[in-house]
Design goal:
globular; five-stranded antiparallel beta sheet; two-stranded antiparallel sheet; 13 helices; TATA-Binding Protein; alpha+beta
Length: 353
Amino acid sequence: MTTIISVFGILGRFAGDLMMSALGWASSLLFGRVPRSHQIYLVLMMAGSFLWIVAVLGVVVPSVATFVLTATPHPVFVNLRWFTAALFVTLVALPLLVGAAGYLVPAEGERVEGARVAIEVLRGYLLAPLLSALLVFMAGVGIVRKFRSLHHGWVETHVPIVAVPGRYDEMVDDLQRGLSADGTKVDERDAPRVLTLPAMILTRVAGPNVRKLRPDRLKELCADDVRIGVYPYDIAISSTKEARMRLRAAVMDALGNADAHLTTSAEAQAVEARIQHLGEALAGGAVGSDIERGLVDIDRRLLRLIISAEEWDILYRQRLKLESTFLRRSARSSHEAPLASLPQLTHTEVPVG
């Protein structure tokens, strides 16, 4: 029993990693910008799809149902017949849960109305098998990539992003320039077909506004010991241990000026867009008072945001980078010490009422 529990623990962690990766894919490819408070519905979609594929295995392979029943505690009256009947009910009911969660994911003003609500709920019968297949597919791709990295002596790191619709090619160009400036010359190639397949399949069931997010061709940036997959929802860096963090830093720096978001929730992306707008205004010669007022506005927004700590840290680093650029330019233009009156991010900045 201890061995079984350990195996389930390992499988659970692996499934959790897959689910979180697939969650990012579904979020950006199926729904685009999702409010933080609505991401629980994405989790329900993934969890429902994962349970659905387990139910399928239990029905198709009776020995799986027998194993699950005997390996888990259950009331005495629950026998294999009851358990199999429950699996059939699950096969029918879970897709409706997945479809209902998919309907609830967008913000209130962006949800469909009327008879289309029923269509969105019934779409769960497409989403449940698709997302289940995605989990299995990602497991296979992950294993192949791991073996490839071990063969080359590489390690992998990921940078979650959300590309601005219609600006994918510009983002790739920005990354290539940033890596070249860091001393890494990379060639641009088309990504393998097997890596573009999930995005192509998922966007088949997405709305027209979301389909714009997937570019016509996905690309990789490659060198001798470097392979960087550039996707609308993720940047996957494969390289040697020595170069991994340097390349990640170069990618992060290049993304500061690229057409992409480093955050996924709609609330965080709105602040990120505001920081990028101020950066463009600063590069265009905006006066110091405008930038200072913009920094005060960003600080107030940051203190009101209800987002994950990781996204908040990303936004705050972007804000600090903007302030640092502003101070350096102010010092160069005035040949004096930088301004000492810039706002500080404290609770006293939050307006009352």
